[in-house]
Design goal:
Blueprint (H helix, E strand, L loop, with lengths): L1 E3 L4 E2 H9 L5 H8 L9 H10 L14
Antiparallel strand pairs: 1-2
Amino acid sequence: MYVCICFAVTDHEIETEVRAGARTLREIAKRCGAGTGCGSCVHRIYALLCTYDTVPGVTYPALTA
């Protein structure tokens, strides 16, 4: 499913970035551009970050913007 229409970023790409070390909205934006266009996807990205908090082997020191 597309999360960021502006940059055609999918939920799978967000998960890939999380597994590669991204832990914040800012890190996701820096890695793939999601959330830096119109901004309407920011809440979906944050929700995915919260969801991926349960991925084995992934820890979240802080979920911040």
